[in-house]
């Protein structure tokens, strides 16, 4: 079993770095999976503070034990926000001046993430298209929960790279 990394110990180097010209040929490329990350109550509480969403199913572990999930759960948008650090762990492009998160399509929160669970992201580059001054990619991103068949989040993540 792999020891989950904390935010502080996660790799800062992406697993795959390609040149911009190579990016244009990568539609269909499987990017693999990130390392597992444990979802802690501290992380959930910090997200609650940042977003003013202190609903008890997230922030009250004692009450949440008797709630619909049997434990406190991460906010769906907290889990979705992990796409960014996970993305940086998987992939990068050299030979560009600017990299931006362009947006999301078809986001679904398909399973709750209980505090103490471990999650990771798997990704596939679904599409690559040229845009003025660069390229846009659509990544099929799935955030999995260790030991569960059903994922936490399924989304299409859009990123742009400008030369």
UniProtKB/TrEMBL annotation:
InterPro entries named among the record's database cross-references: HotDog_dom_sf (IPR029069), MaoC-like_dom (IPR002539), NodN-like (IPR039375)
Listed CDD domains: NodN
Domain annotation MaoC-like: ranges: 27-143
Transmembrane segments: none
SUPFAM superfamilies: Thioesterase/thiol ester dehydrase-isomerase
Pfam families: MaoC_dehydratas (PF01575)
Family classification: Belongs to the enoyl-CoA hydratase/isomerase family.
Name recorded for this polypeptide: MaoC family dehydratase
Source organism (scientific name): Sinomonas flava
Lineage: Bacteria, Bacillati, Actinomycetota, Actinomycetes, Micrococcales
């Amino acid at each position: 079993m792999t020891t989950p990394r904390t935010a502080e110990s996660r790799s800062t180097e992406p697993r795959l770095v390609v040149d911009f010209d190579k990016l244009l040929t990568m539609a269909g490329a499987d990017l693999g999976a990130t390392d597992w990350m444990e979802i802690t109550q501290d992380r959930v509480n910090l997200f609650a503070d940042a977003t003013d969403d202190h609903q008890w199913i997230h922030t009250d572990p004692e009450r949440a034990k008797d709630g619909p999930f049997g434990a406190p759960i991460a906010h769906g948008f907290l889990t979705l926000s992990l796409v960014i650090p996970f993305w940086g762990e998987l992939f990068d492009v050299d030979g560009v001046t600017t990299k931006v998160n362009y947006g999301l399509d078809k986001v679904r929160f398909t399973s709750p993430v209980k505090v103490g669970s471990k999650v990771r992201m798997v990704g596939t580059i679904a599409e690559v298209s040229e845009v003025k001054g660069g390229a846009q990619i659509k990544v099929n991103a799935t955030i999995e929960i260790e030991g569960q068949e059903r994922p936490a989040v399924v989304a299409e993540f859009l990123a742009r790279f400008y030369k």
